[in-house]
Amino acid sequence: MKRNRVGFNYAIRGIFTALQTEYNMKIHFVVMFVTLFAGLYFQLSVFEWLFVLIAIGFVLAFELMNTAIELVTNQLFPGQHEDAKRIKDISAASVLIAAVFAAIVGTIIFAPKVINLIS
Ligand SMILES: Nc1ncnc2c1ncn2[C@@H]1O[C@H](COP(=O)(O)OP(=O)(O)OP(=O)(O)O)[C@@H](O)[C@H]1O
């Protein structure tokens, strides 16, 4: 039980470390809070919340994993290396895919509500 609690603390520390060191992580957090407030404002249905939360979770989790992969890659390849380039590009692509699909989910859910609000 104690072990689990300590492990949880390490994981939370990992989120803060990524927030401090990764500019993209800060952007993801800002977008997450804006989306959550928008969700509360527009009173999303349970179904809509599920999609929004899954999309946010995927983006944050992939960004954290991408950060870890970058750190490992920097240790494995201190200099310029074609494999380091491939690894980082592919890892970054995983975040991009998650972010693009999250943006699509956000657009499908929020666009009609925003249009309805301003028209
Ligand atoms: N050791 C390396 N050898 C060759 N190319 C590299 C190497 N390190 C990075 N690159 C190239 O530069 C790009 C950016 O690398 P970098 O480590 O700055 O990642 P980043 O995505 O900008 O990280 P961050 O999210 O921390 O800003 C990589 O996607 C890759 O194409």
UniProtKB/TrEMBL annotation:
Mn(2+), Zn(2+), Cd(2+) and Co(2+) support activity to lesser extents. The chain crosses the membrane at residues 27-44, 50-69, 90-111. GO terms for molecular function: ATP binding; kinase activity; metal ion binding. It comes from the Bacteria. Its cofactor is Mg(2+). It is a multi-pass membrane protein. ATP binds at Y10, E22, E70, K88, D89. It is found in: Cell membrane. CDD domains: UDPK_IM_like. Substrate binds at E63. The active site is at E63. GO terms for biological process: phospholipid biosynthetic process. It holds the Pfam family DAGK_prokar. Keywords: ATP-binding, Cell membrane, Kinase, Lipid biosynthesis, Lipid metabolism, Magnesium, Membrane, Metal-binding, Nucleotide-binding, Phospholipid biosynthesis, Phospholipid metabolism, Transferase, Transmembrane, Transmembrane helix. One of its GO terms (cellular component) is plasma membrane. Coiled coil: none annotated. A divalent metal cation binds at E22, E70. PANTHER family: DIACYLGLYCEROL KINASE (PTHR34299:SF1). Belongs to the bacterial diacylglycerol kinase family. This is Diacylglycerol kinase. It comes from Halalkalibacillus sediminis.
